[in-house]
Design goal:
Four copies of one chain form a homotetramer. By secondary structure, chain A is α+β, with helices and mostly antiparallel strands. A seven-stranded antiparallel β-sheet of chain A has the order 4-3-5-2-11-10-12. In chain A, strands 6-7-8-9-13-14 form a six-stranded antiparallel β-sheet, covered by helices on one side. Chain A has a five-stranded parallel β-sheet with strand order 19-18-23-24-25, with helices on both faces. In chain A, a hairpin with a 2-residue loop joins strand 6 (about 100-105) and strand 7 (about 105-115). In chain A, helix 4 crosses helix 5, helix 5 packs across helix 6 (about 155-165) and helix 9 crosses helix 10 (about 300-310). At the C-D interface, helix 1, helix 2, helix 7, helix 10 and strand 20 of C face helix 1, helix 2, helix 10 and strand 20 of D.
């Protein structure tokens, strides 16, 4: 097979967007999804309402593939929620495209989810044992089943009861004909903020989706908080559970979020600059000619490193933004073009130079290894690799598509072993202590389980669904 | 109509790639076209041969849209040429997709062209008057007609005669069952280089297309030079016309080429760094907090400015790479989302700061104006705009899709008027003298007609085809 | 809006096909669906298994649109079930495409359904009230929910219990990794037959789907019978309920089935020939020049009429088979092209002639009216319309997409009134008595509710879902 | 490879339609192409004008695939010409889709062609030798080149001169901003008629395309006649060459035309009925139970046979109209499904019966052989095959895609040998004498070269284009 997939190092699950009360809600939701496209590129969907009916359009592909004028003409109403999905391996089926839309005892309900439940398997087994059927493989369907089973008289008390049964990470947006609800799990693992656009309300995974429509950022939604948007443009906040310790995913700051976004109330670029400066303090390089970033995700970290170290930043690696998610490559003679298609080292810059190569993280190490080989071929004399985060040793159970422990290079290799494997002269990771000291929230407000193995929410023993750790 | 096109400021016509003598020629040509995608995104095509037949596949869209395994299975042979096209307004028809493939007296011929002829209109009129029919609106068809009309006994002498009739810019690759020919016009307006991959030969508009397939860069093809590749992997060079003064398009260095490319034998990034440094000398800003680039085209220039001025570079504008070439936007209330969809200013960085904003050029000024307004809204106190090239006052007749003079803001406004129009505190353009002093070739080897109005090759008076100057 | 839909007069719901135990099961299932394409053209789907996993491919459109080699490469295994769907108005959404595939307590289950439940609304309300969620609007999902809710220790006893709760018409094929099950409701409203192909078993809505793959027809499945196909190519028959009076849909004989099919054990063409002969006896025309059919559905009936009456058959109406299900037509001036696009009267045949026009049935009368006008324009002197079935006065609740009573012309007009409305010289319907006397089963083995209003299975009062009778 | 093509026995080249002077010209042209879809299913195209510009839309596939509302919105004007193409093997490329649209000395010209030139190869060689380039493989391009080369002062005299150089079959419709021209070659090989719709003019290959838009049939265009339609809805007729003997393709009557069409001024159905009656006289069957047709092309002939012989017609073969032009079939075990997918014999009708099987013609004999095997398997006791035309012994050079002589079974086998090969009890072909005696024109007005080898227009010796006779 000669068509390959450009593997991002790590994949997150979703981008969420919701807009309550604007005549152009659907079009603005498309814009919001454009801005959140980096959080998921496998499928996109929008559900809207004008207060009486629910409209839906979903499809596989980028937002620009899924939505055209014909699709938009079907989506009516001044309220809409949208979703970008990064489906995990093997699940690119149409059934899993979000928002999920169902009929149940309280009418119709659409639900968009970012995160991962750690007790989904047992909940699903219990639900199936007592008569539920499942048509998708996503955790989102578990949540709706629990809501449908709630023996409560009202939707809101039923929702509360359903949420109390699930454990894990979930930023959710729900929509029916009367309400839009945005909420976070009690630990607030995944980002979700809200803002205003004239009289309407906007919620989004990252603030860059507010910026694109010209909305004013208000604040991050809090762990355990539920914002209820209702007719006549009313909003009320409500804590559906006691506030637990916030466990903001630190990888959102390291890698996922766009640098121009605020997440968890703080600037992603600002955090990365700090990581870069601290990295320069912890792992200086004394005789380097230049700092280069692995573009674009490491740009801010590299800039921080350059600033602190005084070593000039150079654009030594160029990224090709035009290739799609799959590409065609030659194969008969074993030549490997995967990394070369995405990045090109600039010989004129690198030739005969001592280079500090800054990356945000190392997962499997295979991409880094090829990149380093290319940089050597371009003539670099020395390569000093600097990583803006600690070694990733543990898989994530809260919504990030990390590989199993076995595949995480740092889970079973020392830094020196990794250095040799990558073929660099020196290798330095930002320490966990250093990361937390300069990160924009206080240390105990983060989830750092992928570095430390301290999981704030216990995961089920048999957590092996969807290719994860056994 | 609510679907809009993301207008690049200026558009070039094409990317060319050719490979002679590799078992995986077609697949490697796809890779080459990936690397040259920035030069044209409207259509792509490949023509190949195994020495007996000619195979063809073309289509509208990106390389990754046009080529899949089914398409590749039709393209046989160890020799292939490919083309990325940026079609000018209104001509997105299937007929114009290159390479152009025709039957004529010497059999079959495929032709890929980058550039523009200045006497195409009169040649076409003459050809039509004497019995030719035209099925496309491209200059390339004119060249083939002239070749077909040549009363010579051999293809090569006919080709030479045809070339002597055309004036303007043309880097060409031709392919038939026996030969691949790469050539430049006598002034060498547009780039074309060649390299080697084991025993095979590669030609490409930019060296980044050699890098992606691991080919070794040899050198730029010279003005008036013709490289003839023939069976048993032979190559010979031949000057089909006397060598005239080289007129390398300086805009290739300023804007078009990928920074990691060599063009006309020199590094694009290296040139831009020099432009940035010189710009800092000519137009310093004394109390600025930061330099920011309009990404990605101005990154190298901004880095040069930052280096020379000592003002730190910041990532104050983030570009969204995921949107396609058209997008959906709201429209009912006149809100303008065009620029906002592509760029987002980072408030955390810009708030309360004095900013040097570096861009490569200004064409109409409308995108800059919106960008500047967004940067102001993000809280910048002062904006000092610095442009890495002189004011564009004259249209290009050699293959670059500039607007008419009327639309070029600098053709009828002073720098001070433009400054006011854009709404910046100060505005500085790199001087033509400065540009030429630091540019990588000697001053008389460039075409700078867009700045100076000195056209090295006369254009026809009635040059109004395809929306250009009357 | 100027794109219109070619409305068939009456629409049935589905074609079913299943194959147990052939190395080429999936490809043969595609063939089977080709043969059953007349039973549903809105969507198609196949689910297969190799005994361990379940594979699925579904899509909107004709079988030839939905299945290509890429789709087939995903469908593994020697057992497969397929479905052609005629979706009712407004429900062309992807969610409703069958077979329905779910996860539930006994693993995975695929289900293909032909028919309609009369207590679906109340069952659905009860299921939702006690916690079920619905993702489609089809009755099939109700059946799966009931099965999932069954508090039985085994799948088969659960299935039996679920079936006992539903009322209406249902021919079903179910598939999981271990079993394929084909069954009919206790009255056997809809056809389903089985056959053999070497050692494998085949089930299909009509025998033409057995013919296309060269399978040997065995017999019709009986009302209340369940055929269970299990590993090592075993089959056993089982009556899951007491045998009730068979209520074979007589419209299958009149209109739906392909003439080359056996349904309910009898030849469709043979039945139609009898209807035609009887029609000629009941409603002779004494001085006609020719009999013409409304092609192709009335061909057999017209042939019977011609044979019995001695009046020669002519091909006076030609049907265009190439137009798709929607077509473009002019509209500005109210010209009506709908019927003309499908049928063309042959002036050379009709000019100056007295014509017996034979059709199988009249639903709304609007198509007939236009057709008759066209035949008059082609020069026919007299038109004597003869209908191969009694007046349709009552809607069907068992799976046929008839309009509401209000729209059925015969429910509120006398034969004479219809004659005037259509503009024919005489009009004769086959009597119900006549129909039943010559039909291939005994009179009490048919459902003739659409003619008589005697519904063998009571329907819910509020049966107004999907645009039916209130 | 397991996707196969449903080969029609013989393929014609095209359907032509033109409409001059109706506000809905483009939509009516789409209707006209629907009606002519049987003449070509590989591609479709329309060119229109409002008197100033020329608009074009073309694509591969059926008319209903190629034209949608978006396509129609691009096609402006009250004059339009359309074309359905049956491309010959291997030439399904986009370049060949008609109408061909070119720029040349007299501006723009669109041309739709039905037929084949017998001196195309030498004309093309001459044109290429003197400087023309060809971008398609169609004869149509030759015609336009000749016109472009004409050294005349006016378009019409140039056209006349160009036509005088070409030999063969050509019904043409041309369109520019000022004129629509419909013309026939001097022998009038291929049909083309005209009619009126209110004040506008319509031309079409068959009258069924006039019927579908409600136009009034006027008459067939004559050999060597040119109808010129100009502004203010004027029409004039002009003979551009002396009238030669008409050579109407007799196969249009036998097979191609829709039965409801008039071609060459006569009814196709009427002609076929006569062929059938004569066939019954020439080759009676004395003890047969029934006549069956190979549907739908032989229906009229079979009806004529039945009428004359007194043997009743039965619908013993059912054709599946829903499969597309390619289909998926099993292949591993060599089972052959090709014919079975298209036709199904009705066992209930054929079992134990003596059958007269009527077909219109035999080309290679392979489809007939399989069909006969299927009819035997369905239980027919005797099969008496009767063919409504003489043995085809010679290839057609005038636009019908017959195979080479080698593949024509009758060119090298006696009737008795064919009978054995097909496996029928008796075989009878209509005699050429009989055919011509009952055909609707006088014998010397037909081209019967495929039966007699008497070619009215000499073809070039090296006539091996498109896989034909060498």
């Amino acid at each position: 097979m000669q068509t390959a997939k450009l593997s991002s190092k790590i994949s997150e699950s979703c981008g969420l967007f919701g807009l309550w009360g604007d005549a152009e809600a659907v079009r603005l939701t498309v814009l919001g999804l454009y801005a959140l496209q980096h959080r998921g590129q496998e499928s996109a969907g929008i559900v809207s309402t004008e207060g009486e009916n629910i409209y839906e359009h979903k499809g596989l592909g980028l937002v620009s593939d899924v939505f055209d004028e014909i699709a938009l003409s079907k989506l009516k109403g001044s309220c809409a929620i949208g979703h970008n999905r990064y489906s995990t391996t093997g699940s690119t089926s149409a059934e899993n495209i979000q928002p999920l839309l169902v009929d149940y005892k309280w009418g119709k309900l659409a639900l968009a989810h970012n995160g991962n439940l750690v007790n989904a398997t047992s909940l699903r087994q219990n639900l199936e044992a007592t008569g539920s059927i499942f048509q998708t493989t996503s955790d989102t369907e578990v949540i709706v089943h629990l809501l449908a089973r709630a023996k409560d008289s009202s939707f809101l008390s039923g929702l509360k009861k359903a949420l109390q049964k699930i454990r894990g990470a979930y930023s959710l947006i729900l929509l029916n004909e009367n309400l839009m609800i945005a909420l976070k799990d009690p630990h607030g693992f995944r980002p979700l903020c809200f803002g205003r656009l004239s009289n309407s309300f906007v919620v989004a995974s990252e603030s860059c989706a507010l910026d694109i429509i010209g909305a004013k950022y208000e604040r991050e939604i809090k762990p355990g908080e539920m914002l209820i948007f209702s007719k006549k443009n009313k909003m009320r906040s409500y804590f559906w559970t006691k506030h637990l310790r916030q466990c903001a995913c630190i990888f959102e700051f390291i890698y996922f979020a766009r640098p121009d976004s605020r997440i968890f109330g703080e600037s992603a670029d600002g955090a990365r600059r700090q990581f870069g400066r601290r990295l320069a303090s912890e792992h200086p390089v004394f005789s380097a000619d230049m700092v280069i970033a692995v573009p674009d995700s490491s740009n801010s970290i590299a800039l921080g490193y350059a600033e602190k170290s005084g070593i000039p930043l150079e654009l030594g690696l160029i990224r090709n933004h035009y290739i799609g998610r799959t590409f065609i490559h030659p194969s008969q003679d074993g030549r490997d073009f995967g990394v070369r298609i995405k990045y090109n080292p600039v010989q004129e810059i690198l030739q005969g130079k001592k280079v500090v190569l800054v990356d945000d993280s190392i997962v499997r190490g295979s991409t880094s290894q090829k990149l380093i080989k290319m940089i050597r071929s371009a003539g670099a004399l020395e390569i000093h690799m600097r990583i803006g985060s600690p070694p990733i040793r543990f898989p994530c159970f809260y919504g990030i598509d990390t590989p199993t422990r076995k595949e995480l290079i740092a889970s079973h290799h020392s830094v020196e072993q990794i250095r040799k494997h990558l073929g660099v002269d020196t290798l330095g990771y930002l320490s966990l202590k250093g990361l937390l000291e300069v990160a924009p929230l206080s240390p105990n407000e983060f989830c750092v389980a992928c570095f430390s193995g301290d999981y704030p929410v216990k995961y089920e023993k048999n957590y092996n669904k969807f290719g994860m750790e056994k």
